[in-house]
Amino acid sequence: VDESTEIVKKLKLTGAPYKIYKNTAFIKNMFNSSLEIAKFEGAAIKTVSGIRGQIKRALSKPEGCFRATFEDKILMSDIVFLRAWYPVKPHRFYNPATNLVGWQPMRLTGEVRRAENLPTPKDRNSQYRKIDRVDRHFNPVRVPKALAANLPFRSQIVEAKKQKKATYMQKRAVVLGGEEKKARALVHMLATIQRDKEEKRAAKKEEGRKAFRKKMAEVEEMREGREKKDKQEFWRKQGKRRAGWDQGGGGKKQKA
């Protein structure tokens, strides 16, 4: 029985992309050197949004950055993190005890500190640090011009110049606030884009249905032709058989 134990350390490292291509990205602020990256080549990484990836190779410049591939294109605002178990090999120590009767074992580190009233040393790298996150910037939703031109009159997007002075009716009338107006316009734009996507999806499905119906019509035509040919062959054989019966006098005679 193998009674050996393996000591591992749980790691959770975070990084951020600084250059993004289609399914490839360059990640920074996760490692400090190329040697650390070499130990984790092939390790699985993941973004906060759930896109999985893999560490490929370290970059020559800058130090500590690496190339990674993902299932889909990630965003600059995504945080990439690595969860792994790193093996820790302790120093081997061997001290045989021949007699355990009067043997007093060596005190543990905590017992020595308690007896000597020594404080626990604090490592600066092990303390919690404040994490400064960069605020995410969302680009405004833009409706394509080709789509905006086909909108009905009530849904037309009017881009007029901002009015400096409010009119008398605007001052008197109860209108929506700035945030409410922006929210309503955003919802309307999103609904328009969603409607356009659904129309394109329906048109694509209809094309697939047309191709399927055409294929089924060809199969049905081939089946009908085959059945017609088999039927003609059957009646041709039946005609020959009947002609043979007429010439031979109706078959064999029965014995008395």
From TrEMBL:
InterPro entries: Bms1/Tsr1 (IPR039761), BMS1_TSR1_C (IPR007034). It comes from Parascedosporium putredinis. One of its GO terms (biological process) is maturation of SSU-rRNA from tricistronic rRNA transcript (SSU-rRNA, 5.8S rRNA, LSU-rRNA). Pfam families: RIBIOP_C. Residues 246-256 have a biased composition (Gly residues). GO terms for molecular function: GTP binding; GTPase activity; U3 snoRNA binding. Residues 1-88 form the Ribosome biogenesis protein BMS1/TSR1 C-terminal domain. SMART domains: DUF663. This is Ribosome biogenesis protein BMS1/TSR1 C-terminal domain-containing protein. Residues 196-256 are annotated as: Disordered.
